[in-house]
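Dear Dr. K.,

Following up on our conversation at the group meeting, I've run the structure prediction for ABC transporter from Cerasibacillus quisquiliarum. I'm pasting the input sequence below exactly as I used it, so you can double-check it against your construct before we proceed with anything downstream. Let me know if the numbering doesn't match what you have in your notebook.
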Amino acid sequence: MSNILEVDGLRKVYAKSQFVLKDIDFSIPYGSIVGFIGENGAGKTTTMGAILGTLKKDRGAITIFGKKVDVTKPKIREDIGVVFDDMNFSSHLNVDQLAKVMKNIYQQWDNDKYNHYIQLFSLPKKQKIAGFSRGMSMKLSIAVALSHGAKLLILDEATAGLDPVARDDILEVFIDFVKDKDHAIFLSSHITSDIEKIADELIFIKNGEIILKVNKDELLHNYAIVQCRSDTFHEINEDDVLAYITKDEMLNVLVSNKHGLPRGCQISDFTIDDITLLLMKGENNERTHS
Ligand SMILES: Nc1ncnc2c1ncn2[C@@H]1O[C@H](COP(=O)(O)OP(=O)(O)OP(=O)(O)O)[C@@H](O)[C@H]1O
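The predicted structure tokens came back this morning:
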């Protein structure tokens, strides 16, 4: 069993907004960090909610730790650490009082670990949570998620609102977490540089549909963004073209195989932000050979 989480044909329709999560499939290997990337409203939170059972899915199977499980059951919730944007702990509590509450919720609660993260994240122990900034609340959510013996972390925008130093500390904590090969992390972020730093696999979602799943090393070694003229563009192997944007006479093209491109293609350096922009704003590979 090499995957900690498998998602098969997950579908969710919001009748009110007519948004459809379109039968998505993906898996999270043990020992890996998988980054989930997409624009606002693409369906990231919906996917995570449907996996966790906080949202009712319309179709699809979720397999966690090798079993088709009801993720809302307390037993399995021990093993999954969750950070969502809008997590609300009782705001009248302070950090120490929250620990006492968590101890009653989670059998595997580890107070030493919790205190370690509270200290690492420089959180005040006696101040009421109500007075915490967004970044402080995020850090607290992460400290809790890491302190109840979870094997899988599902993190929705967990680094949003954190300053660069705190983000860096937390990314290190995530990298450490998956050094244990029984662990894995599934995280969404708009800060693609964070994902670039720590993720092993990337999943791109657009309008409720997964448009690209790729291993980061493969992306860095084989993919490229190239500039070329229209006639050269038509010489690129069609299967290698993932997306393109036309600008004046030139095209910016995302290709999945930078080896063996026709002459006249200029390869430029790219970041995952550049790839995201091309995938989200560009046209897909259904080229018209005019
Ligand atoms: N309760 C709801 N009822 C109807 N539509 C909803 C509901 N919740 C979300 N949606 C719609 O579903 C779509 C996907 O939303 P979702 O929150 O999953 O996106 P996201 O990728 O997490 O976005 P963001 O990056 O802004 O957090 C959006 O169009 C949103 O308007």
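Two things stood out to me. The first helix runs from residue 44 to 52. Residues 223-284 form one domain.

Best regards,
J.T.
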